[in-house]
TrEMBL record:
This is Riboflavin biosynthesis protein RibD. PROSITE patterns: CYT_DCMP_DEAMINASES_1 (PS00903), CYT_DCMP_DEAMINASES_2 (PS51747). Pathway: Cofactor biosynthesis; riboflavin biosynthesis; 5-amino-6-(D-ribitylamino)uracil from GTP: step 3/4; Cofactor biosynthesis; riboflavin biosynthesis; 5-amino-6-(D-ribitylamino)uracil from GTP: step 2/4. Converts 2,5-diamino-6-(ribosylamino)-4(3h)-pyrimidinone 5'-phosphate into 5-amino-6-(ribosylamino)-2,4(1h,3h)-pyrimidinedione 5'-phosphate. It comes from Solicola gregarius. The keyword Hydrolase applies.
């Protein structure tokens, strides 16, 4: 199973589908094929492995990181493909979390296939946690990224904010950006900071498959803003309703969001119960007066503060990166 997980982890970005790996083993334990899912419309990992193995798949054991699907979408049900290929045994890590595709394990067992479920289930869940949480909540998983000084300022009194975090932290941000479906900011950030919101290399050039750029807010965006460049797709959602925006993005296949908006938009997401993770880069810098990293009317006393559980604390260059999550699960609907 660990080999199947490694194969899935090394696969290309499969937006908006999960990463899945499948290993086919012969009776003597030798490997027949390694299959991975490559994205929408391509064979699922099980079918990819079956196609590689051909007739050798008859009587084989399939090791799969996610329960084989039991429905017809852009491709047919993997449960039926495994049955048709004559696979004798299927070992599953994570159960399918969606009602639409669930039931593959039961269908296999009904057809006489030996099924074992829950092997390294926690590791499989961690591989696709954002996707799994998203389909359960029916909205994208939201990570709020912020950069602030030790005294909690995201910009100086004159509005300048470049650069609070150091070059290593900025490089780390691009690495994390590359893994998400969409980067979200508000119209204020676009109008004032004019960010590019792209994944870039050390030479400041866009690289790889770019996430969708999403701007939330009702103000008009001039055509000369960087978000309208050809470097990445952009969508302007002319609303201030966070739940409405997330509903639209989920319907369009966005499963995880990297929130880089300013303090007002971050406050709106928190007020809506729609922040699932916080990644904060804290710079060894003091500004005194300046713009606070978060603005929200919801917190008026210490008792109203959002309490977070640290997940990881590490240094990135001269900055400290803190990854934390709400102590209580955020609202599961939006």
């Amino acid at each position: 199973m660990r080999e199947a997980l490694r194969a899935a982890r090394a696969s290309v970005r499969t937006h908006p589908n999960p990463r899945v790996g499948c290993i086919l083993l012969a009776d003597d334990g030798s490997r027949l094929a390694v299959g991975v899912h490559q994205g929408p419309g391509t064979p699922h990992a099980e079918v990819d492995a079956l196609q590689q193995a051909g007739e050798r798949a008859r009587g084989a054991t399939a090791i799969v990181t996610l329960e084989p699907c039991n429905h017809t979408g852009r491709t047919g049900p993997c449960s039926e493909a495994l049955i048709a290929a004559g696979v004798r045994r299927v070992v599953v890590a994570q159960a399918e979390p969606t009602d639409q595709a669930a039931g593959g394990a039961a269908r296999l067992a009904q057809a006489g296939v030996d099924v074992e479920s829950g092997v390294l289930a926690d590791e499989a869940y961690a591989l696709n946690e954002h996707w799994t949480r998203s389909v359960r909540m029916q909205r994208p998983f939201v990570t709020w990224k912020l950069a602030a000084t030790i005294d909690g300022r995201s910009a100086a009194a004159d509005g300048t904010s470049r650069w609070i975090s150091g070059p290593e932290a900025r490089r780390d941000t691009h690495r994390l950006r590359a893994a998400v479906d969409a980067i979200v900011v508000g119209t204020g950030t676009v109008l004032i900071d004019n960010p590019r919101l792209t994944v870039r290399d050390d030479a400041d050039r866009p690289i790889g498959d770019q996430p969708l750029r999403v701007v939330i807010g009702t103000r008009e965006l001039p055509a000369d803003r960087n978000v309208w460049s050809d470097d990445a797709p952009t969508r302007h959602l002319a609303t201030r309703d966070v739940r409405e925006a997330l509903k639209v993005l989920y319907a369009d296949g966005v499963r995880d969001v990297w929130l880089e908006g300013g303090p007002t938009l971050a406050g709106a997401f928190l007020d809506a119960g729609a922040v699932d993770e916080v990644i904060a880069y804290v710079a060894p810098m003091l500004l005194g007066s300046g713009l606070a990293a978060l603005q929200t009317p919801a917190v008026t006393t210490i008792a109203d503060a959002w309490r977070l559980e640290p997940v990881e604390v590490t240094t990135v260059g001269t900055d400290v990166r803190i990854t934390a999550r709400p102590r209580l699960e955020p609202k599961e609907t939006a």
